[in-house]
Amino acid sequence: MIAAVTLFLIVSLSALITKIAAIALTHTGLSTEVAKFQARSAYTGAGYSTAESENIMNHPVRRKIIYNLMLIGNAGIVTAMSSLILTFVLPDTLASRLYGLLIVVTGMAFLFWAIRSKWVDRGLSRIIDRLLKKYTDIEIHDFAAVLHLKDDYKISKATVDTDGWMCHRTLMELNLREEGITILGVDRGDNQYFGSPSGEFKILPHDIVTIYGKADGIKSLYNRKKDHYARLEHDKAVKQEEQRRKEEQNRVKEKETEQSN
Predict the structure, then answer these.
(1) Is CATH 3.30.70.1450 correct for 148-260?
(2) InterPro entries from the xrefs (predicted)?
């Protein structure tokens, strides 16, 4: 019985630890889903792809969270397996073993419900948020929410081709803002990085640009070459963005009218 209760407590504590780690990772800028996956992978030792490993290792706060999570995970999994074995080995009678099995099954069912419950998730998230803000120096920003990375909005990186439409043009000439696209930064050789470049900044071959905007607009931008069709694509994108803004303004006006009435 003691071993069964211990197993339930260990699994519950493991779920709580991964929840805390996932929220902490979210505060470093990862989306909620990615943060959950990273936390669970680190705790169980499932591992990451090369790109995900670099994403973690290049960020000091994320690296520290994942490192501690791996250490705790190794101890937690071993302890859980030991408790599971002892649950069915220590009891001398069949009744005791069945009683231990009942505790494990009931406890796991309750824990599964708690993990899946949106009400529990919201309440627990609020508590963890407050504790992280009060007792840690993690910068509390969910950049996925701040940048509205949903409704087809995304952040993307791409290398500028020598025959690409953006190559050897300034941001003023490209006029990407009218398409609803923003250049967040540009990586250039020799460890040069230009954050939030201004209109006179010129895009050069092999620059790695970080772009924010609608997914279809970014895809169109990457496919443009230095030809007549590139200008047509640009003009088409500008018109679509103007139409989208007008529709958004009309929706806001309609909502304000409804509220005033």
Answers:
(1) yes
(2) RCK_C (IPR006037), RCK_C_sf (IPR036721)
